[in-house]
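Propose amino acids for all 499 sites.
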C-alpha cells in the first residue's frame, strides 16, 4: 500500500451475505481505522480515521463477522497487511543522489555505473540526466530491450565530476548505481528512489576514528530548496543546520565537520521535494558504504542479509525520531528456522546500535525489527579487517515480488541473492535472471518458514551481467550482495518491490 497514490490494498474473501459488516485496521492493540466491509472484501487507502497517511509497517486487519443464520457460525479472522512508501516500485522516473567520477590521493580513481533493468515484455526508451553542483546538466538517450539489464558508464560521459542522476523512461524500469574506487578494492551500491520527498531519515552515520560521513542531497526541481538537517546522536544530543540547494543540482554535507567522533542519525526536512542518500567512507576513503534514506519511519523493518562468520561484523542501526522512548524487539532468523529475540529501549530523538556479530557469532541470518513507535532501521556490515563494507535500508513490509537491477559474476565478481521468509509457512519462489539482450533463465526454490535463504547466482548464469526478478507465494524480503577482488570489496542493496 502506498498512501496518497490511490487505493492500493484490496483485501478479498468470500463470506455469507450480510455476515461481515466492518474491518478494523490495527497497530498493536490500537484501532486506527474502521472500514465498512462487505461479503467479498474491501479497499484500504493506507490512511487513519482522520485521513492522515499511516506510518510504514505491517498492520493487522481484523474482519468482524457474525452470521445472520444463528444455526451457522462465520468466524472472525485477522491477517497482516503492509504499508510501504519507503521502497520504490518499477517507475518511469528514478533519482540517484550520489555519484563521483573524479579521484583523490587515498581513494584513487572513482568509477560510477548506472544499472537499468527493464522487467517488462516491451522495449523502453530512457532519457538520463546527469546533474552537477551549480546546476550544469548533461543528457543521454538509450533503448532498453525487454526483460533485460542495461549498463551506463558515467565516467565516459562526465569524467572528474560530482554527479546526481535522473532517469526518465517510456515504461516502468528499475535503476541502481554502483561505484568502485581504490583500484576496485572497494565499492558501494544502492537502488535509487522513484520520487523526491520533503522528509528523509538516515539511521546510520559515524564520524569517529577514520570514518567520514557525507549526506548527498539532489534537488531535481526548478526552484531552490531550503533544507534543515537535525542530527540525532546516541547520547540524545541534537544539532540543527540549515542549507540551500540550487535547482537541478546536487549538494554535499560533510558530517564530520559538524559532529566529530559521534554515532549519528539524521532527519532532513525541506520546503521542496529533494532526494537524500548517505555515503560512509573509512580507511582514508579506501573503503565505504552507501544507502538511500527512508521517507517514513515504521513499526516494522526486515533485513534479508546478515553474516557474522569469517571476520564479518554486522551492525543494526535504529533511529528513533519520536520524542519518547521506543520499545524495540529484534528477531534474528537463521537458515534452519531457529529464531532468537532481543528487546531494547531506544531513547527519543536518538540513534541506537546493536552489534549482531557479538550476540550471534558464526551465523547466516535475517532480521525482523518490531517497535511500539515508528522508527527507522538500517544494517551495516564490514569484513577483512574493515577492508570494505556495505549498508542497506531495510523494508517496512515483506512483498510478493522484487526486482534487483544489478548483478555481475565475471572477472572474479560473486553475486548472492538473499531471501528472508518471515512467515511460518514455506514459500514457493520463482527467480528469473534477465541478461543483456533479453535472454532469461528461471529457477524454482522452496524457502522455509521463519528463515533466510541464499542463492549463488554464478551457479545459474555463469559469467555475465544480469538483473533479477523474484516472485513468491508468500511475502518475502529480497536483497543482493556482491563481492570481488578476493572479497576485499563488496556492496549490497535492498530490492525494488513490484506490484
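Proposal:
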Amino acid at each position: 500500500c502506498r498512501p496518497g497514490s490511490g487505493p492500493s490494498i484490496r483485501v478479498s474473501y468470500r463470506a455469507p451475505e450480510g455476515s461481515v459488516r466492518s474491518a478494523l485496521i490495527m497497530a498493536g492493540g490500537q484501532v486506527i481505522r474502521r472500514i465498512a466491509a462487505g461479503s467479498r472484501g474491501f479497499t484500504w487507502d493506507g490512511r487513519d480515521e482522520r485521513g492522515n497517511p499511516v506510518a510504514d509497517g505491517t498492520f493487522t486487519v481484523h474482519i468482524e463477522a457474525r452470521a445472520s443464520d444463528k444455526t451457522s457460525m462465520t468466524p472472525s479472522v485477522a491477517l497482516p497487511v503492509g504499508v510501504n512508501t519507503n521502497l520504490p516500485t518499477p517507475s518511469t522516473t528514478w533519482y540517484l543522489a550520489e555519484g563521483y567520477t573524479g579521484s583523490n590521493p587515498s581513494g584513487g580513481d572513482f568509477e560510477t555505473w548506472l544499472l537499468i533493468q527493464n522487467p517488462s515484455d516491451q522495449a523502453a526508451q530512457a532519457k538520463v540526466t546527469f546533474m552537477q553542483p551549480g546546476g550544469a546538466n548533461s543528457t543521454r538517450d538509450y533503448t532498453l530491450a525487454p526483460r533485460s539489464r542495461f549498463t551506463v558508464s558515467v565516467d565516459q560521459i562526465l569524467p572528474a565530476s560530482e554527479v546526481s542522476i535522473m532517469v526518465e523512461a517510456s515504461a516502468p524500469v528499475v535503476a541502481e548505481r554502483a561505484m568502485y574506487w581504490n583500484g576496485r578494492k572497494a565499492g558501494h551500491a544502492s537502488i535509487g528512489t522513484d520520487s523526491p520527498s520533503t522528509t528523509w531519515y538516515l539511521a546510520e552515520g559515524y564520524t569517529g576514528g577514520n570514518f567520514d560521513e557525507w549526506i548527498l542531497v539532489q534537488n531535481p526541481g526548478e526552484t531552490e530548496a531550503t533544507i534543515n538537517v537535525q542530527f540525532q546522536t546516541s547520547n540524545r544530543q541534537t544539532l540543527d543546520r540549515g542549507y540551500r540547494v540550487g535547482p537541478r543540482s546536487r549538494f554535499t554535507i560533510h558530517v564530520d565537520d559538524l559532529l566529530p567522533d559521534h554515532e549519528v542519525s539524521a532527519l532532513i526536512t525541506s520546503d521542496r521535494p529533494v532526494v537524500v542518500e548517505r555515503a560512509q567512507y573509512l580507511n582514508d576513503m579506501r573503503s565505504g558504504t552507501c544507502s538511500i534514506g527512508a521517507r517514513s519511519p515504521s513499526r516494522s523493518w526486515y533485513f534479508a542479509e546478515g553474516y557474522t562468520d569469517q571476520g564479518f561484523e554486522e551492525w543494526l542501526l535504529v533511529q528513533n525520531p519520536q520524542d519518547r522512548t521506543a520499545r524495540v524487539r529484534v528477531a534474528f532468523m537463521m537458515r534452519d528456522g531457529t529464531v532468537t529475540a532481543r528487546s531494547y529501549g531506544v531513547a527519543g530523538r536518538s540513534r541506537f546500535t546493536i552489534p549482531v556479530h557479538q550476540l550471534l557469532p558464526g551465523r547466516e541470518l535475517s532480521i525482523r525489527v518490531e517497535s511500539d513507535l515508528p522508527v527507522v532501521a538500517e544494517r551495516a556490515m564490514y569484513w577483512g579487517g574493515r577492508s570494505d563494507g556495505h549498508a542497506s535500508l531495510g523494508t517496512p513490509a515483506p512483498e510478493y515480488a522484487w526486482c534487483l537491477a544489478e548483478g555481475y559474476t565475471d572477472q572474479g565478481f560473486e553475486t548472492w541473492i538473499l531471501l528472508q521468509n518471515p512467515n511460518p509457512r514455506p514459500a514457493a519462489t520463482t527467480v528469473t535472471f534477465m541478461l543483456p539482450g533479453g535472454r532469461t533463465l528461471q529457477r524454482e526454490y522452496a524457502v522455509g518458514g521463519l528463515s533466510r535463504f541464499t542463492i549463488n547466482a554464478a551457479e545459474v548464469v555463469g559469467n555475465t551481467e544480469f538483473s533479477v526478478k523474484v516472485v513468491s507465494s508468500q511475502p518475502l524480503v529480497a536483497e543482493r550482495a556482491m563481492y570481488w577482488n578476493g572479497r576485499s570489496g563488496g556492496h549490497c542493496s535492498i530490492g525494488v518491490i513490484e506490484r
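The longest helix spans residues 356-359. Helices lie at 356-359, 458-461.
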